[in-house]
Amino acid sequence: MDNKIIKNNSFISEEEKTINWEEVQSTFKKTFGSEVYGSWLQKISLIKEYNDYLILGVPTRFFRDWIVSRYLDKILEQVKSFKLSLNRIEFKIIEETKQNQEFIKIDELNKVTEIKDSILNYNRLNPNLSFSSFIQGKSNDIALSYSKKVCEHISRYNPLYICGGVGLGKTHLLNAIGLELQSSNNVMFISAERFMYHFIKSIKKNDMVNFKDFFRKSSVFIIDDIQFISGKESLQEEFFHTFNSLIDKGSQIIISADRAPMKLDRVQDRIKSRLAGGLVVDIDTPDLDLKIKIIKKKIDEIQNQFKEIINLDDEVINYIASESKTNIRELIGVLNRVIAFSRVHNKNLTINDCKNILKDVFNQIRVITVDKIQNVVSNYFNIALSEMLSQRRSRPLARPRQIAMYLAKKMTTRSLPEIGRRFANRDHTTVIHAVKTINRLSEQDDEMKKNISQIKSLLLE
Known about the structure:
By secondary structure, the chain is an alpha/beta fold. The protein has four domains: about 20-105, GMP Synthetase, Chain A, domain 3, CATH 3.30.300; about 115-285, P-loop containing nucleotide triphosphate hydrolases (Rossmann fold); about 290-360, Helicase, Ruva Protein, domain 3, CATH 1.10.8; about 370-460, Orthogonal Bundle (Chromosomal Replication Initiator Protein Dnaa, Chain: A), CATH 1.10.1750.10. The chain has helices at about 20-30, 35-40, 60-80, 100-110, 115-120, 140-150, 170-180, 190-205, 210-215, 235-250, 270-275, 290-305, 315-325, 330-345, 350-355, 360, 370-380, 385-390, 395-410, 415-420, 430-445, 445-460; strands spanning about 45-50, 55-60, 90-95, 160-165, 185-190, 220-225, 250-255, 280-285. A five-stranded parallel β-sheet has the order 5-6-7-4-8, with helices on both faces. It has a three-stranded mixed β-sheet with strand order 1-2-3, covered by helices on one side. It starts with 20 loop residues before the first helix and ends with a helix. Residues about 1-15 and about 95-115 have low confidence and may be disordered.
């Protein structure tokens, strides 16, 4: 058996070229940077290589969940450059080897007792993201109004929880609040990802006392993208106690996330209850009027900055605003492309010019694969891909699985049996049931409709 090829997509033969894991790790370091590589990816080991997927080893469940939720797509993209037939990665929890343990001991010798400088280097407030530069519209006026009220009456709305999709202005509002309050308050502004990074680093360096003291002494605590604590039990425990400590001392807490508190998956109920107990405000997708305001504001900024005249008539501006369907970031990217073309060719653009310039943006038929849908859906709901594809039928796994099947049917040319096979060899009738279920829920449940819309946007980015 050692010298034979197993034909049903199983083990590769000795004659077939295999992946050099050291070369892959070297690519990881260049692609992700030395900080992410040293903290997370360096500890990944290759356990088994098959024709179309890899089994990788990680030291703990916590490591696996974090890597899957943040880096899996890019990891798969990197390993595919070494072997095109790979289309899936699975993770296995393994005990830390002696080498890993020695690595941690060596790391502990370099203890950092002052956490403050390290955090502030990554979390400075952006002076450009102020209330004056935030453009108000029907989709965000409530969130803007209460963000300003928080600055007038600290602790009156506590916590203030701002939720909405990607690129709609949540981080801008959080930053604006920080700028408004920093002169007379001890403001801490940090992303959930960075909060987690320093939490893990402090545990490794046995420096949790400084970690707790630093975060709990702030009078205004602002944390962005709280959904990233999903599934991290030890981090959630620390966040819960930090939250309670700040509330008890009268500090103002402002939080953002991509969904409402009670919709956060794999987050402790007591945390969701605390978050929902404050003021929850939502930012919706911008309407046409707001997009037009944003375009005109951006044109003014460019003209003032570069001292040049940009001639885009109202017809062109309306076209750009109406055709940009996802978020503000995409809208600004499209506008920059049009302005650059106008600048290079030194001409006033017509609507037909814009259609030609942007045809690959607005009209391109993007290649959406079942693999991409599975990865995007699992990341969106913060669950491991292997769990979503498993035979477990619990609601937190079954609903994302049904959404992924629904999108695979709607956005790819794969047949029902083919889709079923890509979901751990499920029968085509399971796919039919999933499509019907999500169709029905999309019509009845606004939250489901919003989830589907946001996932589609991610797939089309």
